[in-house]
Amino acid sequence: xxxxxxxxxxxxxxxxxxxxxxxxxxxxxxxxxxxxxxxxxxxxxxxxxxxxxxxxxxxxxxxxxxxxxxxxxxxxxxxxxxxxxxxx
Amino acid sequence: xxxxxxxxxxxxxxxxxxxxxxxxxxxxxxxxxxxxxxxxxxxxxxxxxxxxxxxxxxxxxxxxxxxxxxxxxxxxxxxxxxxxxxxxxxxxxxxxxxxxxxxxxxxxxxxxxxxxxxxxxxxxx
Lengths: 88, 125
Description:
A: three-stranded mixed beta sheet; B: mainly alpha; about 45% helix
């Protein structure tokens, strides 16, 4: 089920503040975060996030197409990449 | 055989079924179109007048995304998911179910025909 329109998208507040701060300073440092449930909003475009996948922080560079998705969607939590016999 | 938006519509079927031969039009949409065009859906497509055909075609081209355009949009959406490397995109790339279905068993539609592995689950030799 979708989220209620009234609430608007879920954005992790601390993360958002960090982005705003970096925008003011004009810096573009990767931001470490555990907030996988945080929706990507247009302000995030061009930033790099280090999104925790339960084990490590994976680099996620946010592009325009990603707006509306959640950060966690870009940081895979499973490692299976095929059986031994499979080529490719 | 009347041609509505491209190819379609068989002669020997009632119109409301015939319209569903167009990709992107199901029974409900067909019924809505016929209601708006004020055409009786139970008559056969072959008996339509020119005027009725053009009225239906007009409504479809005005309101709906059908056939090639629809197919293009769907594949574009999938390509977008693939390109941004999100979870759903990865599932599309790997040919696995996208919406969280189980894959330990079943999921044959996405995974294709069974690939038997020797020594697994009772297969001897």
